[in-house]
Amino acid sequence: MRRLITNIMLGGVGGQGLILMTKIICQAALKDGYDVKSNDVVGLSQRGGMVWGNIRIGEKIYSPNIVPGDGDILVAMEPLEALRWSSILKPQAKIIMNTKEIYPTMVQQEKMEYPVVAIEDLKDKYQVTAVNAFDEAVKIGKKQVSNVILIGILAKHLDIKLETWKESIANNVPKKAIDMNMDAFDFGYGVEG
User: Is the pLDDT at 46 greater than 80, yes or no?
Assistant: First the structure.
């Protein structure tokens, strides 16, 4: 039985492929018969700043905005983004987290410490699936497929057919990179959690 609404929050750093990720997820959901609303905030992306977006999937969706405390799944493309956006989640919601750290300017300048302990504490409140998607993407062939690894993990938590996911990926990545992206998706789909 399909859930009425699934609220997905995406958080990352500019250049990690959040817009492509949003497009692939939305197209897969639409193709499988869902109503979908999404939005992305990417204005800071050109300076390596934070980027984020909402995706709401269900039978009928009126707004892309997720009310704080109503998030079902957070896909964090960087650990600090998992911490930053965790307040949007329901208790015991799912967090899919890329563990590759990208230090913000204040940490690079040693004016702040990277919040390792606070990020680790997320495991006490939420169902966290953590993988170094960056390193795994490099092993597959290119760091740019790390976002598709995260989509593969997400796919296990949504009622969307596997072939629909693969079709959406193939329709949105360069033809020469389809096989590599399929390998990335399959790797993510096989991650436990």
Answer: no
Q: Is the pLDDT of residue 45 over 60?
A: no
What's the confidence (pLDDT) of residue 17?
84
**Residues 6 or more apart from 133 whose CB is under 8 A from it?**
77, 98, 99, 100, 146, 147, 149, 150, 188
Task: Answer for the pair 98, 150: CB distance below 8 angstroms, yes or no.
Answer: yes
Closest CA to 155 of 106, 98, 193: 193
> In order of start, what are the domains of the chain with their CATH numbers?
5-189 (3.40.920.10)
SS3 sequence of 3-55: CCEEEEEEEEECCCCHHHHHHHHHHHHHHCCCEEEEEEECCCHHHCCEEEEEE
Percent of the chain with pLDDT over 70: 94
d(CA 130, CA 127): 10
Q: pLDDT of 49-108, one tens digit each?
A: 778 899 999 999 999 999 999 999 999 999 999 999 999 999 999 999 999 988 777 777
Burial class (CB in 10 A: 0-12, 13-18, 19+), 163: exposed
Q: Is the sign of the CA dihedral 118, 121, 127, 132 positive or negative?
A: positive
